[in-house]
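Page 37, top half.
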Amino acid sequence: MRRVPALGAAFFLALGLFAPQSFAAPAGAAAPAAKAGTGTASAPAPRAIPVPKSPDASIGDRPLASASAGKETATKAAPQLPPADAKTAKQFSAAPAAVDCNLSGVIGASGSALVQQLKALPDVTCTYPLFELTGTNAGTVFREAQMVTVADALRVASATYSGDNRAAIGQLVMFLRAGYYVQENNAAAVGSYGAPLQTAIRGALDAFYAAPRSQDVTEANGATLNEAVTLIDSAHENGRYAGVVKRLLAGYSSNWPNAMVTAVQHAGWVIEGGFDTKRADTGFVAALQADPTIATAWAGFVTRNAAQMDGGDVVTSIGMMLGNLVGTDALRAQGRPLVKDLINRYPLVGATGPLTMNLVWFAEKQDKNNCSYYGTCDLPTRLVPLVLTVNHTCNANLRIRAQDMTAQQLADTCTSLVNQDAFFHKVIKDNGAIPGDLNTNLEVVAFDDYYNYSLYAWIMYGIDVDNGGMYEEGNPAKVGNQARFIAHEADWLRPTFQIWNLNHEYTHYLDGRYNMAGDFDAGMTTPTIWWVEGIAEYISYSYRNERYAAAITEAGKQTYKLSQLFDTTYDNADQTRIYNWGYLAVRYMLQSHPQDVDALLTKYRAGDWAGARTLLTSTIGTKYDADFASWLTACAADNCGTLPPTTQAPLCTAGDTRQFDKNCRRDNVAATTGNYSYSFLNLPAGVKQLTITTNGGTGNADLYYGGSSWATTGSYQAKSTNAGNNETLTITNPPAGWVYFSLAAQQGFSGVTVTTQYQ
């Protein structure tokens, strides 16, 4: 049973892109809705459709560490550090305004002069710009010989370390940190680092941590210590100084000054780096093997300071890293009892939820098939009533399970979904559910925010959480199957209440039930994503009568031909092609070629995937590409044409095929280039408004109204001359009697539908 990987919008805040806001349903708005399905952590269901990511979405599949972990951090005060290096950018304070931080002497110095220039800097924050060096300057300042010189100076100075920065030891530490950072990012300019630097940095760190005052629990020592701890990780000496980590964790208490707490936080970076499989072996795992008391001190740090846990604290962030023990073959035996104890010691929800659920993630994902040992086999069932405390029934076919929604929010959401259901059927014009589809009801799950979604949804429903939600259809032919859309509130839009992607996802549920035979895998037999995601976008925006700005912008780029979009899959496309261009393709086809859409859906509903593919690639092929390009040009100028009516007028009955009536249509209207299709109708006295619309077919038909005279391009009272065949004219207070209108073939056209209505 296949689970489709989440798409592009990792693409989110940290990378500069958002999933469009309009995927969310505002309270009280008539909004399209969501999809859902079956599935547990061990048996994921088919038809799992990922949705555009929320701005808070994590890049990996682990739960977020804290409620703020997925969000941008506040801008740091100058001098600014490279934001790409989180460990570099964190925990710096601004340089005092009166300090003169001229680094020209440092950049031009070497040997003992370099050391003196560093020590002469008036404040440790003066070293910050060193992290930004590139090119020749980077190579000059941070070549290995320079680093060895400063490391040796740190070793000498550490022998008399006074527990504060009066001897400018902090400047030496920061120079070394900057060097490792710059070399890692500019190795070609700086050159390689080898045994001489490793020997020197070990001597420096050995001397610093041997200095008695390096263990002072003071703000002054902490200011230097926290950077020296980070230097362990910068130099990849995590294993050699695992004892320093143990010492900090074993000694920590809630009354430590802020700078010392920061040192403990940075010890967490040493732990994290020690388990980083992308690095060369830092010896950290071997150190934990050799001294099991490091792990027990680590677990004791958590239990001793559990009262501090609030989800975003140092105890939680370092405690959840204990999961790495069961994720590492060599440490699994010693890690299992520690992780099991913490999972079962603390509640799964509330302040301790981030710790327990992250440890559960390690146990489930990296120590598989051992849930009986950890006591977590029934966790999906246990968590539902603990987390989703709201259980609301909209009607017999629709239920909402939520973490926190008010009565008004529930009522508005129910109204939105029910109204969208009717809208969908008017657009699609289906004849009922696909025979054998038993998904008669939908469960909408709404977590309070992305943070809680990431924390719980992965195990409760067996889904990936690096996305903006997930629709699970399950097996629609199975009795008792539960279709389910798992979502979260858009907390970044508060106080406005919105369920992220609700509009889009409810369309998936309806599309799967009324248009796409079988389960999700069946529908993926051939490329159908242009339709699956495009119709979800189209219904979402048109239902709420909202302008899709992102798609209109894309139209002007002319990136894809229509025939290319028919080939879209989740694997070969990014979010822009899937969502923006899917919308454009579906809108164009519904407006310009509704008969082709009807034929396509007939095949989809029958599960004739090969026949549908032939229709798209052979019967249609490239013949609409030129017209689609013209339509895109007009759409980019905010003239995307009129959306087709949600109900079709009946066929006209007059024997003369040119004659229309009060509310009727004629299909398959045609004319060759330069010629006309002439039409007329007889209006009674008192008509206040006459509306003439055209849509569908190929070519380019322009609409002209002549009043009581025949209409031509040289003689008319009103005209509509959009690209393609989507034209509308509304005539106010037209005269009684016969009135005339024409379709002029700017380019030969055929298959056009013409509709007249008056009141």
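Page 37, bottom half:
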Amino acid sequence: MTITPLDEFLQVSRVAYFSMEIALESAIPTYSGGLGVLAGDTMRSAADLDLPLVGVTLVSRAGYFTQEITDAGRQVEHESAWDPSRHALPLPAKVALEIEGRQVWLTAWLYVIRSQVGGKVPVLLLDADLPENSPEDRRLTHHLYGGDSTYRLKQEMLLGPGGMRLLRALGFSVQRYHLNEGHAALLCLDLLRRSNGTGARPAAAIAAAAAYNVGAVRSQCVFTTHTPVEAGHDKFSYELVSRVLGPNTDIDLLRELGGAQHLNLTQIALNLSEYVNGVAKSHAELSRRMFPGYQVHAIGNGVHPYTWAADSIRRLYDSQFPHWCNEPETLMRIDQVDGEALWSAHLEAKHALLAHVRQSRGVTLRPDVMTICFARRMTGYKRPDLLFTDLGRLREMARRHPLQLVIAGKAHPHDADGKRLIEALHRYLGELGEAVRGVFLPGYDMDLARLLVSGADVWLNTPLPPMEASGTSGMKAALNGVPSLSVLDGWWMEGCIEGVTGWGIGQATAGEDPRSHAWELYDKLESVVLPLFYGSREGWLQMMKGAIGRNAVLFNTHRTMRRYAAEAYLRTRL
């Protein structure tokens, strides 16, 4: 009997975790930012905890993009193609879907996430680049978030129904389908058709959802929504849906489940998932207001402990808390750790960041100067320019207490405002000159993110409320003992204990004027943060320990996955 690489993963029934992007490693550009990194951390924690998951995502052969920054601060995108054969194994199965009236064939590659404690989790990378397909269809799994709405809908067909069919063809037994955002929601329609017996439309073309076994489908599906604004949810015209999905598509059923005017994949996921989750308490409350009548739970996001701790921090934790990787809650005993040992570990991580800055950009920053880092997707609501509202005040502040800045992030290729923000940041840094030394680092990826979240002295986050559903970069910083100075939105509304884990900006109340955030940011820096950093090593070390002992112990994907397992996956009655 032939043993295949999949055999060890087919022995138990699994939760199939569908995500348009999963950050597997920096060398594999199958992610654009927070959603993909969260998905990767989720799978890594599942491997650590030996949870029976299987990931499903697109192979994205052309990747997201490699970022170049010109001397003028303009972002230039280059294709970040990669070869899946160098990282994954081809799998012996193909399935076909009807898209625009023709057969589109789909196969998959197997990537295995291996835990440092021995666990394994399989991830299927769906690939349509097959000789059976037309050149147009072969490109459907090339670009992550590339192309127009037609390309996007076709990709979501491949991810959802295509991924589900490949799981069946490969022999997986699936106990739950977990939709990480609404991109894979069309698989719910395939489940509905299967629940109806033959997979055909109901007799006499009855479109009402009651004609299907909706309850059976709902009991199989878990949905996590990440988007706090209505405009951020995928919507498609029914003319496009009819053309792409084909003439046998039950449009009346889709209108009932996905919206009368446009097909809203979030609406389908809400209607056909028994367990719906927001990614922070505030986001769950907002989602309940956006989608009244649905129960939205609040299992908050987290980060993978081992992945995001700097090498020096890992060694410190290993020496004090031998099981911290799988039991991050043991870090609540951080007060027992010698403060100077923690400071030494932090300085090693900071030196690594400053060395990268010097080698990559030719800019020399000082290890004794407080370093503020800001890194995330460059787009308007993230407000990366908030810190630069008053350059004169920044200069005056830096005369009394020196500070330096390290910034990174990509703008989506179609986000003109995000690109203009990157140019503006370069202009501001140039105007500040030697008064406040700073640098923008191109090529933001997992490796650079790890350097930043561990090498910063303070982590800055300035979203426009309530646009930050969760945010996870500050969680990564906390794991390394780096306190946050952040607007009270998303996870920070739960994580901020003023003067203990970091500092909050804003009031987290309805109707507050966000124009005041810049002045409050300056006030906190000038009167609290900088004086503490330079005036009291002991006080600063207590802040570092507060970030670890109050935030890192809670905001990790081990806690997230244990809650999903107990509250969403294993419940016999959802």
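Margin note: The first helix runs from residue 34 to 48.
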